[in-house]
Specification:
With about 350 residues, the chain is an alpha/beta fold. It has two domains: about 5-205, L-asparaginase, N-terminal domain (Rossmann fold); about 215-330, Rossmann fold. The chain is built from nine helices and 20 strands. Strands 4-1-5-7-10-11-14-15 form an eight-stranded mixed sheet, with helices on both faces. Strands 17-18-19-20 form a four-stranded parallel sheet, with helices on both faces. A hairpin with a 2-residue loop joins strand 10 and strand 11. The longest helix has 14 residues, at about 65-75.
Length: about 350
């Protein structure tokens, strides 16, 4: 068998920066010279090709960037065995979650990674993250990809992308997957947890590139007032709301609060209930506050992350789903983003 081939898509972020030899300031690195910067990559038995985007700060990475990444993978899908996406850490969980929904029936690895320290700095974490992400993207067993899904690799752990959150602005272990086990742990070797990895799909790849931006995230807090809450739900054009509630999905039971939600749902706005906690799940059957939300039609997000709930809602609304079909799709896992028990 020949070498595995991997397409490296560079979008920007800390991993792509190195000090300018003259000024000392950080400037974007030319990934076309990646073998000169990281000679050890030559020791990987992988054919590597680079597709550089104009570097952007990940704070500016939104649906246009997601679509460009998805289209790049679609257009090169038959030419490569796997894909690595280099991305800034701040919004990596949003972008990678979105791609997991956009790349329906993906049967090849799409591994997101980045770094907390620029790749041109001696102590960078980017070098190991990049090398291992490429190795994972190229890995096969019996001629098929080991990890046929969208994943995120960071600091010795491979996670399902749509289960991740960025947990630290400073630690090298910047990401966590609190409600789902890591797909692989990396030490001396790469130890895959095969039972946690998505099975190979039976249908061909289908790429969705129509996303709705008519969604908002509303985080409730003690002391939130009726005018503020109603104003958020009344923003013109809003079709979907990710409602971040307390604990297991609890919220105030004031008449005005429930009434505002009920009126929004009556106007055709979809509302999904996710927990503000970093781990655990929404269970609206436990307490009266949760049951009242359930009774008026708020959708339970179970253990989905805010990032996954938002991007899933953007995709489903963009796909034209409505009514019970939309609600049913939000309640069911599309690509392992939530648990049913």
């Amino acid at each position: 068998m020949g070498k595995s081939s991997v397409l490296l898509i560079y979008t920007g972020g800390t991993i792509g920066m190195k000090p300018d030899p003259v000024t000392g300031t950080l400037v974007p690195f030319d990934f076309n010279g990646i073998y000169d910067e990281i000679p050890s990559l030559r020791r990987l038995d992988v054919e590597l090709e680079v597709l550089p985007f104009e570097p952007i700060d990940s704070s500016n990475a939104g649906p246009e960037v997601w679509v460009r990444i998805a289209e790049s993978i679609r257009d090169n899908y038959d030419r490569f065995d796997g894909f690595v996406v280099l991305h800034g850490t701040d919004t990596m969980s949003y972008t990678s979650s979105a791609l997991s929904f956009m790349l329906q029936n993906i049967d090849k690895p799409v591994v997101f990674t980045g770094s907390q320290i620029p790749i041109g700095v001696l102590r960078t974490d980017g070098r190991e993250n990049l090398i291992t992400a490429i190795e994972i993207a190229a890995s096969k067993e019996n001629g098929r990809a080991v990890v046929p899904e969208v994943s995120l690799y960071f600091q010795n752990r491979l996670f399902r992308a749509n289960r991740t959150i960025k947990q630290s602005a400073e630690e090298l272990s910047a990401f966590a997957s609190q409600n789902y086990p890591a797909l692989a742990a990396v030490g001396v070797g790469i130890h895959y947890r095969h039972g946690a990895i998505m099975p190979h799909p039976q249908e061909p790849l289908k790429v969705h590139t129509t996303l709705s931006r008519d969604v908002i995230v509303v985080r409730i807090f003690p002391g939130i007032t009726e005018p503020v809450f109603r104003a958020m739900l009344s923003v013109e054009g809003v079709r979907g709301v990710v409602l971040e509630t307390y604990g297991a999905g609890n919220a105030p039971t004031f008449g005005w609060f429930i009434g505002a939600l009920e009126e929004a749902i009556a106007r055709g706005i979809y509302i999904i209930n996710v927990t503000q906690c970093t781990s655990g799940a929404v269970n609206m059957d436990i307490y009266e506050t949760g049951r009242r939300l359930q009774d008026i039609g708020v959708i339970s997000g179970r253990d989905i992350t805010t990032e996954a709930a938002l991007t899933k809602m953007m995709l489903l609304l963009g796909s034209g789903l409505s009514g019970e079909k939309f609600v049913g799709a939000m309640k069911q896992p599309l690509c392992g983003e939530m648990s049913l028990d």
